[in-house]
Each structure stands twice: as C-alpha cells, then as structure tokens.
C-alpha cells in the first residue's frame, strides 16, 4: 500500500495554491514586492542550523528588509502539506518527505537548495535485546508513517527478510507516534525500541536506559557513512519569483552552518535556548552535547543518499517509482560558495 502525502483531491487543491506562494506581498518589501519569508523547521537536533539560525538572528540579518516568519513541525509530511498549501515558503526537512512531495506534485512544487545535516539517527532498543536476531516479535516506533526514520526502519526490516505492514502487523510491529510520545512509551515499556533522530536518540539512551542497536551511518557504506538527515527545500514558484531572497536565505544558512561548526559549544547553548522557547522545557545539556557528537552539519546535500532513500521508500511500498532529475537547484548555493573560494556541491 502506497501512502500519499495528501489525498489526490487535497493535493490538487494545495498544488493549485503554489503559484501565489505564501511570502507576504508589499510594495515596500524585498525583491518582487515580497516582504516576508516563512521558514519551517523541526524542534530536533538534526535541525540545529535552523534552531541556531533563528535564535541568533542569522537568517533575519541575511534577509534584510524581508521579514522572517517561522513555523515548526513534528515530522516531514506535515511540513510538505504546509509547503503545498502555501503556509510556508521554505523548510528544513528530511529526505523522504521531500521526495514524496516532489512525486506528489509531478516535480513542480519544490526544489532542494542546500544540505543541512548528516547522521544522527538510528535504532535504540531496551535491555534484553542484544542483537538483530532478537527483533522479530517486538514493537518499534518511528516519528510518523512515511517520514525519513520510518522508511529507514522499514527498509532495514526488508533487508532482513522480515514482513511488516502499515497497520502494525508482521514480523515487527511498527507503530508511528510523535517523538515525545516515543520517549514516554519507551520508559513505560509500551514499545521495545524506536528508530528516531537526535535529540530523541540520545534521550532514549541517556535518560531511558536504552542502547543503540543500529547506527544508520553503518547502512550507507557507498557514501562513507554520510547520509542526508535534513536539507533545505523551497517552494519552486517562490524560488523562481524571488531568487534574490532565496540567495539571502542561503547566505544566512551558510553562515549558520559555519558558526555551528566553528563554535559547537555556543551552538549548543543557542539550541538549548531555542528548544526551550519552542517546547517550554530546555533539554538536558548533556543530551544535547551527545546529540551534537552524533551529527555532521554541512551545506552539502549528499545527493547520492537522497536517491538511495527514494529507492528504499519504493522498495517498502511507500513511494511509486519517481524520477528525481531536477529536484536540486544548487546554482544559488554554488554561486555563494564559489564567491567565497569554497568547493561547490553536487546534485544530479
């Protein structure tokens, strides 16, 4: 059973809104009269460049006269729906929802304009599960059906020769639920483990006594363990109509990634503060430090892993075969990198 991001009727209606976009229009605004850019992101460590960039004002400074508006999400399909409906202009997001959105729109709705994060995801299990052979018969969670970690777990099961379905049946019971609910369910013994991103992976280990059974990096030997966990996508019409604004957004993104890598301790402080503002509770600094150790922040989109992820989604029945040619629009990013004397990145 293939699971669409939107119903066909809703998708058609939402895609129809793309021409207008969501950026606010005002004669005194930025390029093309747009005076607002609405940026989406998630309260996860794998979205740290977004958290830091918003908290420290790097995006707002780079956008100049164009106001930055933000919206947060729990998992990728929700952000794609918001991009389709015109609620947001750009968003940090995982690879599989981006591919789903590309497929749903026939390659018209979005473009990947930069990488953000690699790594920081895997399978954490309870005590008593000592090897992969112990997993059949267990109940495992992912953040949402069809999101990046959900596809990773289902692909992993497929590789082991196990049967799973979208109703929680099969050799493994896969039960999607929100990241916060996953931690609670694990503590209560309602699930045996979960395939999750940071900081929830570190929370399950440091706070709930779990252990990492599968580091997703080990499943990507063809890219030396690198795989896209988060990248930056933009509404395709917004990019076409407002290239200078998108370039400014990328300036802020490059600066943020550089700052995060140059001063990880300060980046962790900003991340903790911003997560506290978003959720009402600041995460444990030790958990955040552990999570930062498990991820790599980079503007390289690691394109080979995007194609691999799409193939995995197809193999587990969550995506019809899709042609990804044209999904990347890296010229603005590469122009900025070239200006700075830095290596350009590759798409396909």
From TrEMBL:
Signal peptide feature range: none
Pfam assignment, any one: NMT1_2
Subcellular location: Cell inner membrane; Periplasm
Matches recorded under InterPro entries: NrtA/CpmA_ABC-bd_dom
Keywords, in A-Z order: Cell inner membrane, Cell membrane, Membrane, Signal, Transport
Lineage: superkingdom: Bacteria
Hydrolase among keywords: no
Gene3D superfamilies: Periplasmic binding protein-like II
PROSITE patterns for this protein: PROKAR_LIPOPROTEIN
GO cellular component: periplasmic space; plasma membrane
Similarity section: Belongs to the bacterial solute-binding protein SsuA/TauA family.
Protein name: Substrate binding domain of ABC-type glycine betaine transport system family protein
């Amino acid at each position: 059973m293939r699971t669409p991001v939107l119903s066909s009727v809703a998708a058609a209606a939402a895609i129809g809104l793309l021409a207008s976009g969501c950026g606010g229009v005002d004669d005194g605004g930025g390029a093309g009269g747009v005076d607002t850019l609405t940026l989406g992101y998630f309260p996860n460590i794998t979205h740290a460049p977004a958290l830091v960039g918003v908290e420290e004002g790097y995006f707002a400074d780079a956008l100049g006269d164009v106001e930055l508006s933000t919206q947060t999400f729990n998992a990728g399909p929700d952000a794609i729906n918001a991009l389709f409906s015109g609620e947001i202009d750009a968003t940090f997001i995982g690879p599989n929802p981006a591919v789903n959105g590309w497929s749903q729109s026939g390659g018209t709705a979005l473009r990947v304009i930069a990488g953000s994060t690699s790594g920081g995801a895997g399978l954490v299990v309870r005590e008593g599960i000592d090897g992969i052979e112990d997993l059949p018969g267990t109940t495992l969670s992912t953040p949402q059906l069809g999101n990046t970690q959900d596809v990773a777990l289902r692909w992993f099961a497929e590789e082991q020769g196990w049967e799973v379905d979208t109703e929680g049946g099969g050799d493994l019971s896969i039960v999607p639920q929100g990241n916060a609910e996953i931690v609670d369910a694990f503590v209560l013994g309602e699930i045996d483990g979960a395939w999750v991103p940071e900081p929830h992976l570190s929370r399950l280990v440091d706070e709930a006594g779990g252990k990492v059974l599968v580091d997703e990096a080990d499943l990507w030997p063809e890219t030396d363990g690198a795989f896209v966990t988060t990248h930056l996508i933009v509404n395709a019409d917004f990019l076409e109509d407002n290239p200078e604004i998108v370039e400014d957004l990328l300036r802020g993104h490059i600066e943020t990634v550089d700052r995060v890598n140059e001063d990880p301790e300060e980046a962790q402080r900003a991340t903790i503060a911003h997560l506290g503002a978003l959720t009402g509770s600041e995460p444990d600094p030790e958990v955040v430090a552990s999570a930062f150790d498990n991820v790599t922040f980079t503007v390289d989109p690691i394109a080979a892993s995007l194609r691999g992820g799409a193939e995995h989604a197809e193999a587990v029945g969550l995506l019809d075969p899709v042609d990804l040619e044209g999904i990347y629009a890296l010229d603005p990013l590469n122009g900025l990198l070239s200006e700075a004397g830095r290596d350009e990145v590759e798409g396909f």
